Amino acid sequence: MSKRRSLAYAAGGLGAAAMAALATGVVVERRVVSARRSGSAEADRLGAIHSDPVPVKCDDGVVLHAEIDELAPYEAGERRRQSDVTVVFVHGYALNLDCWHFQREAFRGKHRMVFYDQRSHGRSERSDREHANIEQLGDDLARVVTELVPEGDVVLVGHSMGGMSIIAFAERHPELFARRVSGVGLISTTAGNLKPHRTLGRWIPDRVGQVVAPRLIAALAKAPELVDTARRPGSNIGFLVADMFAFGSKDVPAAEVEFLDEMLAGTPFEVLAEFFPNFSTLDKFEHLSAFEDVPTTIICGTKDRLTSIEHSRMMAERLPEARLVECEGAGHMAIFESRAQVNEALEELVAVAPR
User: Fold this and answer.
1) 161-172 vs 134-148: helix axis angle to the nearest 10?
2) DSSP character for 46?
């Protein structure tokens, strides 16, 4: 089969998969989706925890939206807590800092915490295309640490693209990482070898899918307003895609699916298209060596369709001292589905992190 014909087949496969997803959203009876949305009032509560905004200006001038949750005031006679530890949470692709709702709810008042929206996400300013890459996200994280955690130990926790940002931080700022970071949590992420096209179809040949998938995204990006209309918050398509690709169980409360859907739909498709090429070219396994002397916990759901459990196991093999936590049955949003297990693992990480 010629290369041109292979590309045509792959394009057809990717296009068919995308169209199938759209058709599913169109033909599913609205009453079925409405039944899953019965918890909309609960969805309004999710993501409602906030602190006063703190601006962080990056080296290229982009201003990030950040928030700091300070420790609760000490009561008379209360024993000293780990007040010298700050936990910095770094969210993933197409999300924002609200995705940490269940961790923020569990740890608020117990630990000093920093949350921020990555560039072009949430309430942070838009980046130009040139700086929409993982390396810049690593630089942004370095700036957040420097400005918002001027002293004391730092524990970094990243989900998906947030974990990649942490690895890029370690790569690009090794002295700062070694001096300040005393613990790392890598959740539903990888250091490389991602094949995004497999999300749409595992039968698509890698050498073809890696070429066609970015082209398909780039083509859709030429009409972002049409894509964003289909992805609007609360749409059947957006709700079903969030449900199908982010969770491992069909028993996830509708409110949590809707909460995720709103974050995904709130990220413009142009932003998704700008960052998408990063994933197939990511190759930072060699930089995991920076984590060898840092307590590291790797967490992933066993039914993660976006960064499969094999990625976490591969990182754990390279870091034999790291702790691997597998969340049975959870998908990519293990921070929702398996929050009790995730929170327990993070609490244990923070406990051993101070130097």
Assistant:
1) 80
2) T
By DSSP bridging, strand 296-301 and strand 53-57 are unpaired
Q: Which residue has the tokens 């996200």?
A: 137
- What whole-number distance in Å separates Cα of residue 345 and Cα of residue 323? 9
Give the tens place of pLDDT for each residue, 91-141: 999 999 999 999 999 999 999 999 999 999 999 999 999 999 999 999 999
C-alpha dist (Å) from residue 325 to 188, 296, 297, 301, 314: 11, 11, 7, 9, 13
Amino acid at 224: P
Secondary structure (H, E, C), 291-340: HCCCCEEEEEECCCCCCCHHHHHHHHHHCCCCEEEEECCCCCCHHHHCHH
| φ and ψ of 120, to 5 deg | 70, 0
Contact 310, 160 (CB under 8 A): no
Outline where the chain has alpha helix (H).
3-27, 30-36, 40-45, 101-107, 134-148, 161-172, 174-180, 206-220, 224-230, 236-246, 254-265, 269-275, 277-281, 309-318, 334-337, 339-352
Residue type present at position 291:
F
CB neighbour class for 226 (10 Å; exposed up to 12, middle 13-18, buried from 19): exposed
pTM equals 0.83
